[in-house]
């Protein structure tokens, strides 16, 4: 018999502005405790040094977390050119230094252009990526080096916002990229293209999928609302489950089709899309979940909310 989860049933998405110095899991656990939620999960780790948009899924919303894991991201970051660290960010120990005083804005933007589009990245050792069931950062802390396969990511925009010259050059950049992109690796690769070591000094995620900084609440705001005492105050800060999949077409089903979909059976949908994933709603507009359009014109359920 399955063990019953402790906590109350909370369903929805909380878009958190994660503070620096806190791991994504610590941010999740803090929010889960404040809500008293039975079930919660985050949608992709942010480094402890990083701040910004971290969507958290509660309850039934966890069924749709993959959409946010797969979503494009936007970052503002400060790179230091001329200093390399073992973690490729400001939290690490310095392992290399070189003068970057000769670097010009033109040289930097030219090198950035070579790192735009579909590029290959080797994931850093200090990352949450698991190999043989263990996160790489744990093996890195033990002094191990593990072979990591390069993988393709898409850098849609890599823009130089400002440059501060000096022995060690600081640049502010904006990056719009696909899932799986490591900004620390991008900084190191930019440094390599310019012939100097480099690392990330600051990193702020400005957008994750449909959610931006304007949608965020801070841990301090959560604590303040919690102190008032009413759970409804916290729940009012949640985004609807459907908000993370607004990009999908929405189909309303008849009462009969809704019955069969809820039984896990494909249904014929007149005038539906020919293929792809869709949002499913009942005749009254109530969100039911997501499904796939099959070649035979039927809609097959994929992820449905509990009834």
Describe the protein in words.
With 307 residues, the protein is α+β, with helices and mostly antiparallel strands. The protein has three domains: 12-70 and 210-242, Pseudouridine synthase; 73-205, Pseudouridine synthase (2-Layer Sandwich); 248-304, PUA domain (Archaeosine Trna-guanine Transglycosylase, Chain: A, domain 4). Helix content is 22%, strand content 34%. Strands 1, 2, 3, 4, 7, 10, 11, 12 and 13 form a nine-stranded mixed sheet that branches. A hairpin with an 8-residue loop joins strand 5 and strand 6 (94-97). The longest helix is centred in the N-terminal third of the chain and has 12 residues, at 24-35. The model has no long low-confidence stretch (mean pLDDT 92).
The helix tally amounts to: 8
| Content of β-strand | 25-35%
How does the overall form come out from the CA principal axes? globular
Give the end-to-end Cα distance, rounded to a whole number of Å.
21 Å
Determine the CATH superfamily of the largest domain: Pseudouridine synthase
Q: Report low-confidence residues grouped into runs of 5 or more.
A: none
CATH topology of the largest domain: Pseudouridine synthase
- Judged by helices, strands and strand pairing, the structural class is alpha+beta
Our count of domains comes out at 3
Overall number of strands: 18
Give me the Rg, rounded: 22 Å
Order of helices and strands: EHEEHEEEHEEEHEEHEEHHEHEEEE
Mean pLDDT: 92
CATH A-level architecture of the largest domain = 2-Layer Sandwich
């Amino acid at each position: 018999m399955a063990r019953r989860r402790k906590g109350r049933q909370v369903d929805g998405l909380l878009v958190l502005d994660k503070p620096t110095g806190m791991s994504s899991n610590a941010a999740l656990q803090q929010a889960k405790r404040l809500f008293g939620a039975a079930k919660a999960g985050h949608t992709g780790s942010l480094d402890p040094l990083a701040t910004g948009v971290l969507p958290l899924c509660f309850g039934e919303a966890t069924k749709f977390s993959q959409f946010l894991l797969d979503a494009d991201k936007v970052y503002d970051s400060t790179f230091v050119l001329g200093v390399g660290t073992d973690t490729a960010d400001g939290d690490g120990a310095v392992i290399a230094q070189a003068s970057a005083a000769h670097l010009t804005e033109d040289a930097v933007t030219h090198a950035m252009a070579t790192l735009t589009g579909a590029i290959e990245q080797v994931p850093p050792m200090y990352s949450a990526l698991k190999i043989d069931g263990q996160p790489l950062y744990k093996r890195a802390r033990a002094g191990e080096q593990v072979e990591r396969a390069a993988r393709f990511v898409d850098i849609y925009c890599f823009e130089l916002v400002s440059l501060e010259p000096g022995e060690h050059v600081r640049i502010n950049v904006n990056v719009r990229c696909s899932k799986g992109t490591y900004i620390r690796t991008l900084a190191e690769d930019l440094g390599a293209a310019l012939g100097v070591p480099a690392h990330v000094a600051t990193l702020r995620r400005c957008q994750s999928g449909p959610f931006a900084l304007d949608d965020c609440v801070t841990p301090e705001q959560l604590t303040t609302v919690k102190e008032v005492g009413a759970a409804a105050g916290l729940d009012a800060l949640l985004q609807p489950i459907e908000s993370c999949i607004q990009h999908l077409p929405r189909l309303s089903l008849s009462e009969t089709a809704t019955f069969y979909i809820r039984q896990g059976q494909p249904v014929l949908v007149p005038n539906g899309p020919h293929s792809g994933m869709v949002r499913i709603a009942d005749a009254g507009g109530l969100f039911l979940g997501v499904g796939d359009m099959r070649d035979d014109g039927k809609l097959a359920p994929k992820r449905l909310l509990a009834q």
